[in-house]
Amino acid sequence: MTALSVVPPLAVSLGDPAGVGPELLAEAWARRAEEGLAPFFAVGGAMVLAQAAAVRGIAVPVEAITDPAEAAAVFPHALPVLDFADGAYRPGQPDEDGARLALASLTEAARLAVTGAAGGVVTGPIAKSRFAAIGFVHPGQTEFVAEAAGVAPEDAVMMLAGPNLRTVPLTVHLALGAVPGALSSELIRRRCTIVAAALQRDFGLANPRLAVAALNPHAGEDGRFGDEEARIIAPAIAALQAQGIAVTGPHPADALFAPHARGDYDVALCMYHDQALIPLKALDFDNGVNVTLGLPVIRTSPDHGTAFALAGKRRANPGATIAALRMAGECAARRAAA
Amino acid sequence: MTALSVVPPLAVSLGDPAGVGPELLAEAWARRAEEGLAPFFAVGGAMVLAQAAAVRGIAVPVEAITDPAEAAAVFPHALPVLDFADGAYRPGQPDEDGARLALASLTEAARLAVTGAAGGVVTGPIAKSRFAAIGFVHPGQTEFVAEAAGVAPEDAVMMLAGPNLRTVPLTVHLALGAVPGALSSELIRRRCTIVAAALQRDFGLANPRLAVAALNPHAGEDGRFGDEEARIIAPAIAALQAQGIAVTGPHPADALFAPHARGDYDVALCMYHDQALIPLKALDFDNGVNVTLGLPVIRTSPDHGTAFALAGKRRANPGATIAALRMAGECAARRAAA
Question: With an 8 Å Cβ cutoff, are A279 and B275 in contact?
Answer without folding.
Answer: no
